[in-house]
Design brief:
There is one protein chain. The chain has helices at about 20-30, 60-70, 85-95, 120-135, 140-150, 160-170, 215-225, 230-250, 265-270, and strands at about 5-15, 30-45, 50-55, 75-80, 100-105, 110, 115, 135-140, 175-180, 190-195, 200-205. The protein is α/β, with parallel strands linked by helices. The strands form two sheets. It has a nine-stranded mixed sheet with strand order 3-2-1-4-5-8-9-10-11, with helices on both faces.
Amino acid sequence: MDHKILTIQDISCVGQCSLTVALPILSACGLETAILPSAVLSTHTMFQDFTFRDLTEDMPKILKHWQKEKFTFDAIYTGYLGSSRQIEYVKNIFHSVASKDCSLIVDPAMADNGKLYPGFDETFAAEMAGLCKEADYILPNLTESCFMTNTEYRETYDESYIDHVLDHLRKLTEATIILTGVSYSADTTGVVVATKNTKEYYKHRKSPHSSHGTGDVYSSAFTGAFMRGHTPYEAAKIAADYTLACIEYTAKDPDHWYGVKFEPLLGDLLRSL
């Protein structure tokens, strides 16, 4: 069966993140991919003096046209959203153009390393928590989980602390939780996949390098693998292995500091499917 997926996030024209990552990865996975840009930026925000065009006002107009054409989607995957108003529009999209068995996948991209991204506040985090309540699958990191559940963020922790965070997320939403960046030792990291009554952990080697956009690579690869028929745990593992490979491949090019070189390794992702 062919699947049609809608992904909603910004376009950073240069920088290998958001839609410029999601669209090629999902398409390579064999999914017909429609897009709804939340904003257009000349580059991502690591660059200076980038341009920014807010597309909030266009979102309801686009939805109205889709409803007129009777478009529906088998999955809706959201990434970076620029405002609380956009979150409300996305909720309306969930209710309006989702097919009967549509999978709603939310990456609450708003924070990392204990801090919210610039332009976001705790009110926005609460709104994002409301979007996660309506999702079937959520992919937060630890920082995002703590902001959405008013839980203390810790840089060092053990499994009991992660269980505590998961308990709060389970109270927030009935969605399957894919909690990324869970690290119990200095040289390993991994992802926890949890439902109301289950918990699985995939551990892998932690790279000493980092790249902008790897969260988008991970979420897109997860969504692609999941929509190709893999279980959430299998999809989480495939996405983790692919993202790690992309980070290490990028590290070989010291001039490529502004993004992650995911394109040359798309063949590896497809073979893993």
